[in-house]
Amino acid sequence: MSRVALAFDLGGTDLRAALVDEAGALLAFASMPTEARAGPQAVVEQIVALALDVREQVPDATPVGIGIGAAGPLDPIAGIVIAPPTLFGWRDVPLGQILQDRFNLPVKLENDANAAAIGEWRYGAGRGTSSLVFVTVSTGIGGGVIANGRILHGRRGLAAEIGHMTITDHSERCFCGGIGCFEAVASGSALGTKATAITRSGDGSALRALSRDSDVTGRHVIEAARGGDETALILIAEEGRWLGIGFTNLLHLYSPDVIVMGGGISAGFDLLEGTIRATIRERAMTAYRDVPVVPAELGSHAGLIGAASLVLRP
Ligand SMILES: [Zn+2]
Question: How far is the CA of 141 from the centre of ligand 1 (A)?
Answer without folding.
Answer: 9
